[in-house]
Structure formats: C-alpha cells, structure tokens
C-alpha cells in the first residue's frame, strides 16, 4: 500500500527545516526584534506552535512574549508587534484580529500561501510556500514555522541553554523518521504527552495530532504538573511521552505505576516528528484514513468568527 499523503509530507521535514534556515535572511525583517513586547496568535496547531515560540523567545531574553488562540486575543493589552501563524492564510479568527489591529500595531503573518487575504491584512508577511501541504492535518508547515522563528533567535545568539541549533534538529528529525515505533507504544490505549518550558506547546500539539488523525485518547501537561493528579491515568497499556529531559525522579514514578515511558533523546522538535508518525500509524491500525480526518477541514472559515 502506498504511504498516505500525510506520511509523505511528514518525511520532508528535515529538508524543509533546512530551507527555512536558508531563507531566514529574506524573512528576518518581518520577525520580532529584540526587546519588543510580542503576542503570537494562531488556531489549533498554529496556536500550539505560538505557545512553543513564546516560551522559547522569552527564555532567550528577547522580550516578553504571550501566545493566544486567535479567538481569545486581548485587544485591551498593548504590544509592540503581533505575529499570526496561519498555514492557509484564510482562518477567520486570525483575519479578524489582523483586521482590527490594522494601523494600530505592527503585525506579521507567517503563512504558506501568498494568494490569500492575510497578505493584505498583515503589515509584513513571511511566506513559507516551500512548506505548504495538502493534508488537512498540519505537520510540516507548523514545524517549519517554528523552525524559522527558532532559527531567528539562533541568528541573534539568543537560544536558551540546552536548546540546539535548527541544523541539529533537522539531523535528529532524520533519526525520528528512521526509528521504529515500538509495539507497546503503537498498541497503547492512552497517551499522555509532557513538556517543560517551550516543549509544553509541542506536547499539546502531539496530543492534538493523535486526536485529529486517530481519534485517540490523549492528554498533555507540563511535566511538573503531571504528578499533581494526571499521573493517575498512567498504568499498564498506557504511554507517558516526554519532550526533552524529564524532571528528576519522574521516569521512575512512571515505571512504578506500570506505564510505558517514551524519552527518545531527540531534539524536542524532532520528537514531534516521531509523534506525528505515531498518529498516522495508530490511525491506520484503527482503520482511519489520516488524510481524511473525521469532522475536520483544512481551513476553518466562519461567517461570523465572533459568534
């Protein structure tokens, strides 16, 4: 059987991340400047990438950075720049925010499609058309947008301690594409994804991929919060998956309750590639088509996004 379209797009990520590195000089002027107070918005997957970037940027010392689902943007707060992540360039809630902010604050959009309304509403635009995708479920555009933003921090010599370069992340992504998925993980009945700092956004995105593609029972938590109740869901036949290093003692606690621990040792962004592959594998094992997820469309366009 030929691989799904989603699988094919997942496999391109190391190369499109490298393309993001190559095109960074073309996009740098549109990206947040050091010291700016920034809000990052998106919907669904783009919101979780926004959360990851906000934590990464603030931890790098570039400036206060907040992330919001576009439908929850706080218009009463003052920002120097608002960054919108939108693969399609047509998402209603994102366009509403950009339209309301026009002329009042600097705005930037990161998108895959230059022939969409976001081009007229955003003050500046970074177009990652080389990372566009046909699939309903986002994979490579989302990670490439984050790779571009991460590379921008890297170029400013501002990556936090312990965060590797995007080039290294791309190398780890190649490992993630080749690594077998263990049967205990593929056949688990429940999945809990854990992250710390910027990787919590990645954990949330991994859980979303599992729900979207496979209809799986998934949750996501900050790793330190996991002990405060959520660990009760873990046990035999259930997975706890960490993005980046786990807090001291947590691995032992997961093993003690009988859970299957995934601590892959990869760059966290590459670890998300592995989770994307798991979502496709679980979907196919359950008889679902990962290219045609239930109840979803590629872009959400609402007649009244404020309703």
CATH topology value of the largest domain: Rossmann fold
CATH class of the largest domain: Alpha Beta
Low-confidence stretches: none
**SS-based class:** alpha/beta
Number of helices: 11
Evaluate the radius of gyration: 19 Å
Q: How would a textbook summarize the main sheet?
A: 5 strands, parallel
The best one-word shape is: globular
Count of distinct strands: 9
CATH superfamily of the largest domain: Glucose-6-phosphate isomerase like protein, domain 1
Helix content: 40-55%
**Quaternary:** single chain
Spatial sequence of strands, sheet with the most strands = 2-1-3-4-5
| Content of β-strand | 5-15%
- What do the pLDDT scores average to? 93
Span between termini: 43 Å
CATH architecture of the largest domain: 3-Layer(aba) Sandwich
Q: Secondary-structure blueprint of this entry?
A:
Elements: H1 5-10, H2 13-27, E1 38-42, H3 45-59, E2 65-69, E3 81-86, H4 92-101, E4 106-111, H5 118-121, E5 124-127, H6 140-155, H7 166-178, H8 183-186, E6 190-195, H9 199-214, E7 218-222, E8 238-243, H10 250-256, E9 260-262, H11 268-285
Parallel strand pairs: 1-2, 1-3, 3-4, 4-5, 6-7, 6-8, 8-9
The gist of it:
With 307 residues, this protein is of the alpha/beta class. It is built from eleven helices and nine strands.
Could you list some keywords that capture this structure?
307 residues; 2 domains; Rossmann fold; globular; five-stranded parallel beta sheet
Description:
There is one protein chain. The chain is α/β, with parallel strands linked by helices and 307 residues long. The protein has two domains: 160 residues, Glucose-6-phosphate isomerase like protein, domain 1 (Rossmann fold, 3-Layer(aba) Sandwich); 107 residues, Rossmann fold, CATH 3.40.50.10490. Helix 9 links the parallel strand 6 and strand 7. Helix 3 runs parallel beside helix 6, helix 7 runs parallel beside helix 11 and helix 9 packs parallel to helix 11. The longest helix is centred in the last third of the chain and has 18 residues. It is globular, with a radius of gyration of 19 Å. The N and C termini lie far apart (43 Å).
């Amino acid at each position: 059987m030929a691989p799904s379209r989603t699988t094919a797009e997942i496999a391109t990520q190391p190369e499109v991340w490298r393309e993001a590195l190559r095109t960074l000089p073309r996009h740098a002027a549109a990206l947040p400047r050091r010291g700016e107070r920034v809000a990052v918005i998106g919907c669904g997957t783009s919101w979780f990438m926004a959360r990851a970037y906000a934590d990464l940027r603030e931890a790098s010392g570039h400036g206060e950075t907040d992330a919001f689902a576009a439908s929850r943007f706080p218009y009463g707060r003052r920002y120097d720049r608002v960054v919108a992540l939108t693969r399609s360039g047509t998402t209603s809630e994102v366009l509403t925010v950009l339209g309301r902010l026009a002329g009042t604050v600097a705005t930037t959009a990161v998108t895959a499609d230059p022939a969409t309304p976001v081009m007229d509403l955003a003050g500046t635009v970074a177009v990652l058309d080389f990372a566009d995708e046909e699939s309903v479920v986002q994979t490579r555009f989302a990670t490439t947008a984050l790779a571009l933003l991460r590379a921008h921090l890297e170029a400013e010599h501002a990556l936090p301690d312990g965060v590797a370069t995007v080039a290294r992340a791309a190398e780890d992504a190649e490992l993630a594409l080749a690594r077998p998925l263990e049967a205990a993980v593929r056949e688990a009945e429940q999945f809990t994804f854990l992250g710390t700092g910027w990787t919590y956004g990645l954990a949330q995105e991994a859980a979303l991929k599992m729900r979207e593609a496979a209809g799986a029972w998934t949750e996501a938590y900050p790793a330190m919060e996991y002990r405060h109740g959520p660990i009760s869901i873990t046990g035999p036949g259930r997975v706890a998956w960490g993005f980046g290093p786990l807090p001291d003692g947590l691995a032992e606690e997961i093993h003690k309750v009988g859970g299957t621990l995934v601590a892959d040792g990869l760059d966290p962004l590459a670890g998300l590639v592995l989770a994307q592959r798991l979502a496709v594998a679980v979907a196919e094992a359950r008889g679902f088509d990962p290219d045609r997820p239930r109840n979803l469309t590629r872009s959400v366009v609402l007649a009244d996004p404020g309703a």
